Amino acid sequence: MNYIINKDEVISTSYLTACYLKGINFEGKVYIVGSEGISQELDEINIKHTGVGPDVFTTLPDILNFVIDPEVRAVIVGMDKDFSYAKMIKAATYLNNSEIIFIGTNTDEQFPASGMKILPGTGSLVRAIECCSLRKAVIMGKPSSFVGKALVSEHGINPQRTLVIGDRCNTDIVLGTRCGFQTLLVLSGVTNLAEAQQYKKSSKEEDKELVPDVYLKTLGDLMPFLAD
């Protein structure tokens, strides 16, 4: 679409997580089930962390004998290609202390993939840790309203003049609705037209926030409206 942006205009869930911890004046270390994107954002605000990368334990006795780090005061779960049973044990163990903060970066169940293949999303990992820890994570990304609050406070955007464009009703469109933004569903991704129409016809109160203001077949179809 030939739009030029700089890196400061890209807001990731890792960045939002760092904003959240900074906002509550967090002190302590973070156990991360996630990638270097999270650790890099924490480095920017001088928060210590551990957990990124493959887990070194190979047997169950070794895993169960891991040393609990008393400095850990939060657990963050994001996308982790090295997700493992060992990491689940450690995360759940830390979260057994009700004073430990539990953060999930987002709730996406799946990523788009070709054919019949399934790529589990971050939400799948968050739910796994929620299940074994009997805790509920505070979600930073879509559809959490924290996204909108951060955009307004950190970047000064006007909700009434903001359009959320996305391909998922249960994350992108819900985010826009909860934050008071206008919403545009693009039908080239996850949610199809039949699903969007079903939400509009539904009498369920919880389905109302899934209904987009407008929809287009592809993102390119938006270009004529931006000509001026």
From TrEMBL:
Which Gene3D superfamilies does the annotation name? Answer: HAD superfamily/HAD-like
Q: Where is the signal peptide?
A: none
The name this protein carries in UniProt is Phosphoglycolate phosphatase
Q: Which organism is it from?
A: Cryptolaemus montrouzieri
